[in-house]
Amino acid sequence: MRVILKVYRKGIIILPKRLREVLGVREGDSVIAEVLEDKVVIRALKPRVVDVNPEIVEEILSEEYSVEMDKYKRMISGGEPSLRY
């Protein structure tokens, strides 16, 4: 598909409805515009949906908490030099 777009004041370009439909872009969506050689390419910015296992996240956070608590306990008990100014 090829269309002619007009550049308005402050560089505003309006994407016609037909282009937006082909790209799957709606009001409020973001697009990526990049220059490739002598062309401007506009692509829809579609976030990736990632499937996250909440049990793995909980395990990682639990490990991080344990490590930080160990550091804190060593600092309080004097096993690690405290920060003094």
Features:
14% strand; Pemi-like Protein 1, Chain: D; alpha+beta; two-stranded antiparallel sheet; 85 residues; 36% helix; single chain
What does this structure look like?
The chain is α+β, with helices and mostly antiparallel strands. 36% of the residues lie in helices and 14% in strands. A two-stranded antiparallel sheet has the order 1-2. It is elongated.
* Tally of separate helices: 2
Q: In terms of per-residue confidence, which ranges show pLDDT below 50 for 5 or more consecutive residues? A: none
Mean pLDDT, rounded to whole units?
88
N-to-C SSE string, H for helix and E for strand: HEEH
Strand percentage? 5-15%
Q: What spatial form do the alpha-carbon principal axes imply? A: elongated
The second-level CATH architecture of one domain is Ribbon
Largest beta-sheet details: 2 strands, antiparallel
Using the coordinates above, name the CATH class of one domain.
Mainly Beta
Return Rg in Å: 26 Å
Spatial order of the strands forming the largest sheet: 1-2
| Structural category | alpha+beta
At the third CATH level, what is the topology name of one domain? Answer: Pemi-like Protein 1, Chain: D
Task: Report the count of strand segments.
Answer: 2
Helix content: 25-40%
Could you give the distance between the termini? 66 Å
